[in-house]
Amino acid sequence: MRATRVLAATGAAAALVLTMPTLASAASDPPTPEVWSTQLAAPFSLEIDGPRVLVADGGTGMLGQLQPDGAIAPIVTGVDGLSGVAVRGKWLAYTSTHTQLPEFVNTASGLNIRTPKGVRIYADTHAWEVANNPDQINTYGPESEDPCVLGVLGPQYEGMVDSHAYSVASWDGKWVVADAGANALFQVDDSGHVSTLAVLPPQPAKITEEAVAELGMPDCLIGTTYDFEPVPTDVEVGSDGMLYVTTLPGGPESAALGARGALWRVDPATGDSEWLAGGFLGATNLALGKDGQIYVTELFGGRITEVTDAHTTRTYAELPGVVSVETAPNGTVWAATMGNEDPPAPGTIVSISNGNVKVQANIRH
C-alpha cells in the first residue's frame, strides 16, 4: 500500500469523536489540559518556536500561528498538501504535496524553504525520488511462493517510485524530511539540494488465523509473513544527535494484524536504524521532552503515549483524534486533534502543563 493511501486514512480516522482530553493517572498530580483553539481542520504538524506555536493545517492549506484568543493567524496560505513545518532561527520550512485524485498518485512533492529575507527555495523531493528511488533496495510483499498466496497478495516487489514529503525538522544547519512515500529520510540543505540520509527497513507481519478470519481471506495465507512498507510520519532530532522517527505499518491497522506503528532511532552518520518501541495504533507524530521523554501520537488509538528509556510505554493522555504533538523548552506538551465531518467537530490545539502557559501574538512573517 502506497503512503498516500495510508495517510489519507488519517482523514477517515477523524470520525473519532473529539472530547476534552483526560490524562493517565500518575504518582504526582497530572498536568491540566487546556484547549486553546477550535479553528483547525487537519493540523498535521506543530512547531514550537519560543513563545510561538505554529501549525501546519493540511485541511485548509494554511501555515499559521496560534493567537492567545484561539485564532490562527496566517503566515502562508494556499499550500497544496501541507503537512510539516519547522523553523531554525529566522528560517522557515514546510512540506507540500500535490496528489492526483481519485487515483491518489503524488505528482509533486517537496520542501519549501523561506530564507530570513523572505526568498522561497523549493527542494524537489519528488524529482529526487524519480531519479534515485532509494528504497528500491527493499523487498516488500509476501515471503511465499505458494500460488494460492501469490494469487491473493501478489508477488514480492521492490520499492516503487513515490514521494510524499510529510514531516520536516531542522538538523545540523540543514533540514531532514521524513518522506512517507519514499520510505526514507532525505537531507536538504538551504540551497534546496536533496540527498538520501536513510532508508527505513520493511516491517514484517505474520498473518494469523484470526486475521484470515476477520479479513475474509483464504486459509492458505495463515502463517505467511508479509513485508510491509515503512511509512515515516515524523522525525525529530534528539539531544544525542540521533534522529527519532515514527512509522505507520504500510497496511491495515486494526485488530486483524494488530497495532504495528513503531518508533525508530536513526544514526544520521550511517543511516542505520534501530527499532525502539512498537504497538502504536496510528503513529502519526512524535515529540521529545526536555528530560528525555518521547511522546508518540496514536491517531487510531486516541491517545498520546510516552516511551520510557526502557522502551516500555504508558498512556500519557487520552486524546481522541490526536494527530500531532510537540514540546516546549519549559516542558509544556502541545497537541492537535483532527476535525470531524460526521459528527461535526473542529480540530483543536491543546496544551498540557503544570504551569501557566502563554503564547505570543506577534506574527513573524
What does this 3D model show about the protein?
This protein is mainly β and 365 residues long. The chain has one domain (3-353): Neuraminidase (6 Propeller), CATH 2.120.10. The protein is 9% helix and 46% strand. The strands form 7 sheets. A 5-stranded antiparallel beta sheet has the order 1-26-25-24-23, with no helix packed on it. A 4-stranded antiparallel beta sheet has the order 2-29-28-27, with no helix packed on it. Strands 3-4-5-6 form a 4-stranded antiparallel beta sheet, with no helix packed on it. The two termini are 38 Å apart.
Provide the descriptors you would attach to this structure in a database record.
365 residues, mainly beta, Neuraminidase, four-stranded antiparallel sheet, 4 helices, 29 strands, disordered N terminus
Topology:
Blueprint: H1 3-12, E1 22-23, E2 32-40, E3 43-49, E4 52-57, E5 62-66, E6 72-76, E7 85-88, E8 91-100, E9 105-114, E10 120-123, H2 125-132, E11 139-142, H3 147-153, E12 157-158, E13 165-171, E14 174-179, E15 184-188, E16 194-199, E17 203-206, H4 209-215, E18 225-228, E19 231-237, E20 243-248, E21 261-266, E22 273-280, E23 283-288, E24 294-298, E25 303-307, E26 313-318, E27 322-327, E28 333-337, E29 347-353
Antiparallel strand pairs: 1-26, 2-29, 3-4, 4-5, 5-6, 7-8, 8-9, 9-10, 11-12, 11-18, 13-14, 14-15, 15-16, 17-18, 19-20, 20-21, 21-22, 23-24, 24-25, 25-26, 27-28, 28-29
